[in-house]
Amino acid sequence: MASMIEMQHIEKYYGAFHALKNINLTVAKGEKIVLCGPSGSGKSTLIRCINHLETIKSGEIVVAGHRLNDSQKAVDAVRREVGMVFQQFNLFPHKTVLENCILAPMRVRKLSRSEAEATARKYLERVRIGDQAEKYPAQLSGGQQQRVAIARALCMEPKAMLFDEPTSALDPEMVKEVLDTMVSLARDGMTMICVTHEMGFARQVADRVIFMADGQIVEENDPESFFSAPKHERTRAFLGEILAHH
Amino acid sequence: MGIQEFTYLLQGLAWTLFLTAIGFAGGIFFGLVVALMRVSPSAWLRVPAICWIGLFQGTPLLMQLFVAYFGLPLIGFDLPAWGAVSVALTAHASAFLGEIWRGAIQAVPKGQSEAAQALGLHGVSRMFDVVLPQAFKLSLPATVGFLVQLLKGTSLAAIVGFIELARAGTIVSNQIYRPLLVFGVVGAMYFAMCWPLSLWGRTLERRMAAGQAK
Ligand SMILES: Nc1ncnc2c1ncn2[C@@H]1O[C@H](COP(=O)(O)OP(=O)(O)OP(=O)(O)O)[C@@H](O)[C@H]1O
Ligand SMILES: [Mg+2]
Fold first, then answer.
1. Whose CA is nearest to atom 31 of ligand 1?
2. Number of other residues whose CB lies within 10 A of the CB of residue B57
3. Which chain A residue's Cα is nearest to B124?
4. Which of A19, A220, B54, B59 has the most CB atoms within 10 Å of its CB?
């Protein structure tokens, strides 16, 4: 099967701090990965390297056939294929929901305004927020904002989506609506890497769960085996903590 | 004070408004250039902007007016008084507005620029579609505050013989020997221009503080 994202021997430093240590990860087309691990283990850093929000010291990243390097052309090609959803939503507060969704399609994909609006309305419907298109982000609840952020990324029609703790800034009652949106996206065959501690979501959609600690991939397995029979001591400790909180 | 003297003051007032408008319009344009250079990743752009800001923030406006008025002709720019004063005010305003906007640009949360990058937006679109509109809003109270300073600062143009409102007041006062009356009127005119601006600035500030608390 063709791979969508390939990371080989990735080394990443912040100054002298070794943030990613020999990361090797291949994500097949349509595969769903859940990435978990303690705070500071490098989960965000890992997925931010994929769309070049962070630069790596060495190693190779290939996304949808585009080899990532520092050239603007390669970066553009990769960003064109992957969408990203952030913990803090990062919607543009001075633009309406619709304007948030059409900006990049018009600037980057060079769609006309009417084409971009049609696409935007389609995806806003899809995340069940079509009736809020004219509102500003601040007028929406956290869950609604995060769904808009998902729609905004989908408007670029990416081949893969990266999620960095998309539900951890949300009030508990809004977590489900966002997870439901992600589940439906997964059902439609989107390739996804999700940093999340929502273990229910991991069991439901993940093909593989990856556990990171200290900048390394410590363990990876299918969700069933990962949760029922974690191999490493650190994984067990981490799962114990997560479960204690839920 | 007769109608003739009052008209003279109004002419001074018109010049004050004219100088403020030029200084502000020029300051907005060049201030934006300075701010963008100041936040540039390239040292070749950043360092000149830092020097420019330091130069104009670190010297009195009075001296800047002198240099423009007496210095520009020396290097071959023979400008009328209002031209030299306009150049000085524009340069002065560009440095101050540039610094105000530099702060505002850097105050826009990093996540905004990252979201734009993740969507594939390039530098220009990122700056003009995403960061600057938010920075401009953040900077409004300080920008309006500077406008008030600039308006009052135009009175220094009198030093190079320019007859704006304050200078017109001095002249009229010397003619009719009623300094209290004349400067009362002049003061009221400044007040009528600055007070509404200050109020507006304060309203913006309060509205924004309320927005942040939310
Ligand atoms: N810009 C940066 N400069 C310096 N160090 C950084 C930077 N970003 C992250 N780090 C460090 O790199 C390590 C990994 O950070 P990262 O954000 O990837 O962790 P994480 O697994 O996503 O944690 P969390 O669950 O808290 O989000 C941390 O120790 C962090 O302090
Ligand atoms: Mg993180």
1. A40
2. 12
3. A107
4. A19
Please report, as a single letter, which amino acid is at residue B165: L
Q: Where are the domains of chain A?
A: 3-244
**What does the pLDDT look like over B88-139, one tens digit per residue?**
999 999 999 999 999 999 999 999 999 999 999 999 999 999 999 999 999 9
Would the pLDDT of B213 be above 70? Answer: no
Report the distance separating Cα A201 and Cα A184, nearest Å: 11
The DSSP H or E segment spanning A97 is helix A97-107
* A42 pocket-lining for ligand 1 (C-beta < 6 Å): yes
Inter-residue contact B150 to B90 (CB < 8 Å):
no
The shortest CB-CB distance from B114 to any of A53, A93, A149 is to A53
- The finding on whether A19 has its CB within 6 A of some atom of ligand 1 is yes
Question: Which has the closest alpha carbon to A80: A151, A154, A156?
Answer: A156
Which of A86, A94, A104 is the closest to B111 by Cβ? A86
Q: Find out whether A149 and A103 touch, Cβ atoms under 8 Å.
A: no
Q: What span, in angstroms and rounded, lies between the C-alpha atoms of B211 and A141?
A: 16
* pLDDT tens profile A126-177: 999 999 999 999 999 999 999 999 999 999 999 999 999 999 999 999 999 9
The CB of A235 under 6 Å from ligand 1? The reply is no
The answer to whether the beta carbons of residues B194 and B151 sit under 8 Å apart is: yes
Looking from the CA of B187 toward its CB, the CA atoms found within 13 Å total 7
The domain defined by B3-213 folds into: MetI-like fold (1.10.3720)
ipTM, two decimals: 0.93
- Chain CA centroid to CA A39, Å: 17
What architecture (CATH level 2) is domain A3-244? 3-Layer(aba) Sandwich (3.40)
Amino acid at B201: G
Domain boundaries, chain B: 3-213
